[in-house]
Amino acid sequence: MATPLKDIYSADYLERVTALAERALPAACGYEQLRGLADRLAPLAMKARAELIADALCGPWPAPPDRLALIDGLLEATPLEPGAPSMTAAPAGRGAPLRGFDLWPVAIIAERLGPAHPDAVLARLPAITCRFTAEFAIRPVLLTHPERTFARLHEWVEDPDERVRRLVSEGTRTRLPWGQRLTPLIIDPSPALPLLERLRDDPSEFVRRSVANHLNDLSRDHPALVLGISERWLRGASDDRQRLVRHALRTLVKAGDPTALRLVGADDRAPDVTRSAIGPATVRVGEPIELSVTVANPGNNPMRVVLDYAIHFVRARGDAGRKVFKGATIDLAPGEERTVRRAHSFRPITTRRYHAGQHRVDWLANGQVVASHAVTLTLQGTLQGTQ
C-alpha cells in the first residue's frame, strides 16, 4: 500500500523545517514546540497537520513583521526549480531543503496574515506559488481586499513565470478543492472573467488547464454563462483552446446538458446498443466491477458518441444518489460498431461512505441512458477505512 501523502509531515520533516527555521530566523526561546510535534501529528489529517506545524512555527514570533521575515527566510532556503512546482517531499536529512507540500505550513502563515497585511502578503505570493502553490493563501486577502488583489492579478497575467499566471486563474476559482469558497465570486463572477479571457490562449498547458477548471467550477452555479463563453471561445478556436473548452464543460456534459454536448461535437441522437454487461453481480467494498457496452452507428453519417457511466450509490436513508464517471468519446463511421470497457473499484475513499444494497449502473450515450444493470454491494468482511 502506498504511503499516505500526509506522512510527508514526519519526524524527519520536523527536524528539517526546524533546522531551516533556526537558520532563517533564530529565536531566543527556540522552536521547542516544533520539535515536539511528532506524536500530536499522528492522528491528524493532512491539512490539520500543516496547520499545527504553522502554529508551532509562529510560536516564537507573536508580531506579524517577524512572521513575514520567517516566511522570507524559509523561501530563501527553498530552491526555485524550473517548471511546475513539485508536489513531492524533498529528500530526507536535516539539511535538506523544503519542496512541494513541505511548504504548505509556510503558505498557511501567509494565508493568516493576508487580511491584516494585504500588500505584504500579496508581494510574497509569487515566490510561494513558484515553490508550492498560493491558491489557498490568496483567498482570505482576496475576500477582504478585493480591489487590491485584483489589481495584482491583472499584473500577474503578464508575468513571465507560468506558475504566477496560473495563480491568477487558480486563486480565483470559486469552488477550489480544499480552498475557502469565494462566495462573492459565486454570486457575481464578472471580476474574474477578464482575467480568464487574457489567459485562454496562454502558451502553458498548466495555465490553460487551470482556466478550464475555473470555468468548470463556475458551470455549477452559472451554466448559461459558461455555455455562452464556451460557444464564443470555440469560434475559430485552436486545438489547444478546443481542449480547454471540452475540459471546462465536463460537468455539464456528464449532466447531459444538450448545449454542452453539442459544443463538444456529440451527435443529437444516441447510438444503438448491441451488447452490454457488468460483473460480478455482487461485490464487497474494495473490490472492482467490470463494465462493457457495445454501440453501433445505425445512420448514414458519422456519429460522435460521448459515453459515460453513472452509479446510483445507496445512501444511509435508503434512497440513491447518482454520480457520473467519464467513459470515452468515440467517433463512429456509418454502420461501425465499437466496444468500450471500464473498471470501477468500490475502494474506500474519504469522500464517500458505502452502504449495502443494490446499486444501479447506467451507461449514458450523448446524455441518454442506453443500458442499465444492477450490482449488489455487501459490507460483509470489509472495512470502510480512509486512505
Question: What does the model show?
Answer:
With 387 residues, this protein is an alpha+beta fold. It is built from 17 helices and eight strands. β7 and β8 (368-378) form a beta hairpin. The longest helix has 15 residues, at 205-219.
Mean model confidence by pLDDT: 92
Number of helices: 17
Question: What is the percent of helical residues?
Answer: 40-55%
> What is the radius of gyration?
24 Å
Instruction: List unreliable stretches of 5+ residues.
Output: none
Shape: globular
Largest β-sheet summary: 5 strands, mixed
N-to-C series of helices and strands = HHHHHHHHHHHHHHHHHEEEEEEEE
- Structural class given helices, strands, pairing? alpha+beta
Give a quick rundown of the structure.
By secondary structure, the protein is an alpha+beta fold. Helices cover 40% and strands 19% of the residues.
List keywords for this structure.
single chain; alpha+beta; five-stranded mixed beta sheet; 40% helix; 19% strand
List the topology elements.
Blueprint: H1 11-24, H2 32-35, H3 38-41, H4 46-58, H5 64-76, H6 104-113, H7 118-129, H8 138-144, H9 146-156, H10 162-170, H11 183-187, H12 193-199, H13 205-219, H14 223-233, H15 239-248, H16 250-254, H17 258-263, E1 272-279, E2 282-284, E3 288-296, E4 303-314, E5 320-332, E6 337-345, E7 357-365, E8 368-378
Parallel strand pairs: 2-8
Antiparallel strand pairs: 1-3, 3-6, 4-5, 4-7, 7-8
Helix pairs in contact: 1-5, 4-6, 5-6, 5-7, 6-7, 6-8, 8-9, 10-13, 13-14, 13-15
